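WARN no homologs supplied; continuing
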Amino acid sequence: MTTHDLRSEADDPLALSHDESVRLLRGAPWQRFAVIGDSFAAGLGDPSPGYATVPWPERISAALSAGKPDFGYLNTGVKGKRAGEVRAEQLERVLAFKPDLVNVAAGGNDLFDAEPDLDGVEADLDAMYGALRAQGADIFSFTVTNVFESVPELAVFSDRTAALNDRIRAVAGRHDAVLIEMWHHPVRLRPNLMSADGIHFAMEGHAALAAEIVKALGARISDRTN
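OK structure emitted
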């Protein structure tokens, strides 16, 4: 039996407990949280032994909503949607919800084209970020994790994923979004990270991603209150 076989969420150094997440987000000003995008936004992923079957968006919502009876949460994520489709089909609904914190997770499905239109993806992301910021929402985003060493059959997507991450960084920088860097995160080397489809994190990965989001949002809260 390996060390990995013995790991559970409770003793995973890359995960945070719900109580610790609540502590780090104490004082958060956000009352209406929305997630917009594709299957990464929707929180798709297989169960992982020893981990709660709770996708990352629900983990974040649960931590932010603690002690806030009027907290609102909306997730419009739909599997398979390209960035342009997310903009056309989901943005107005999210704006109508009037969120004060939004995650935008889109662009990954555009990479399945033989020659992805990354200029178009960046333009769609920029438009979504701009509309959300104009309404007063804070935004956070994350780069796609480099799983290509551990999942060599996906290596064809490595360069184009790195290029997408550059576009995500650029848009986040222009709109003062909180950016969670996942490209080199150590979770990428775990042997049971991916779901059976080879595309989405299993819950072990969701726990690690949620932990990084909580830490990044906690840092933003601290920056604003100090």
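Strands lie at 32-37, 72-75, 101-105, 138-142, 178-180.
OK
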